[in-house]
Amino acid sequence: MEKKKSITIKSKGVSINTPVKDLKIKKIIVERIADPIGYMKKNFRKSGKTYTTFLKGLLNRKLRGLDSVALTLNKKAFEKIDCLSCANCCKTMSPTYKKADVRRISKHLGMTFQQYYDKYLYKDESGDYMNKSVPCQFLRPDNMCSIYEVRPRDCSGFPHTQNRDFKLYISGTHIQNIEYCPITMNIVEKMHDIVIQKKIRNLNGKKHCD
Ligand code: SF4
Ligand code: SF4
């Protein structure tokens, strides 16, 4: 019988003897960001202005494969960062509610539209409904959402880095979110590394994202 090759790796001070073929899985675990908010704040202090300028510049750059690289970086960022150890969006920002969201959530809570509005919302200058206060009233102490199944569409789609057409969301979303969302910060940091540090112009293929 063929003997499996193994290697000893260290994770958080603990030595693990692992078959070489399992290393990829172990690597993902080792690379998880334990303190996403701390990571984001540190990076924003250090490079926030650079990343903002970089994102604005992307709007005028012609880069082949930008969307495909953005989606790969998005997947990797979600592997590294656990939203349940963060919840910074629910703690510091209001979702933008559409009427349909308010109808669905108020019905779920056994309230009328108006009762829900009076208790929790105000209308901003664009006519969107916003929470009166942060953290969100539905955020539980364990960082779970108490109305998860009926939460606003803005919440289920957040941070919008999983959408096609990365450029479309730069001005209104990603530039703001590098200060609030560790996943957005991680994607922009890696994208900056690929485009500016490594000067890669044709982004087709996933090898740049490693
Ligand atoms: S989407 Fe971003 S801000 Fe919200 S919990 Fe996940 S990492 Fe944190
Ligand atoms: S509705 Fe849920 S997901 Fe949306 S901000 Fe509130 S707690 Fe977070």
Task: Annotate the secondary structure layout.
Blueprint: E1 6-11, E2 14-19, H1 23-30, H2 36-58, H3 66-80, H4 88-92, E3 96-97, H5 99-108, H6 113-120, E4 121-123, E5 129-131, H7 153-157, H8 170-177, H9 182-197
Antiparallel strand pairs: 1-2, 3-5, 4-5
Helix pairs in contact: 2-8, 2-9, 3-9, 5-6
Structure description:
By secondary structure, the protein is mostly helical. The chain has a domain at 36-101 and 135-209. Helices cover 47% and strands 10% of the residues. The protein has 9 helices and 5 strands. Strands 3-5-4 form a 3-stranded antiparallel β-sheet. It has a two-stranded antiparallel ribbon with strand order 1-2. β4 (121-123) and β5 (129-131) form a beta hairpin. The longest helix has 23 residues, at 36-58. It is elongated and about 55 Å long. The model is unreliable at 1-30 (pLDDT under 50). It binds iron/sulfur cluster (2 copies). Residues 36, 81, 83, 86-89, 158-159, 180-183 line the site of one iron/sulfur cluster.
Label this structure with key terms.
single chain, 210 residues, mainly alpha, three-stranded antiparallel beta sheet, two-stranded antiparallel ribbon, 5 strands, disordered N terminus, binds iron/sulfur cluster
Helix content: 40-55%
Provide the gyration radius in Å.
20 Å
Number of helices: 9
Overall shape: it is elongated
Uncertain parts: 1-30
Outline:
The protein has helices at 23-30, 36-58, 66-80, 88-92, 99-108, 113-120, 153-157, 170-177, 182-197; strands spanning 6-11, 14-19, 96-97, 121-123, 129-131. The protein is mainly alpha-helical and 210 residues long.
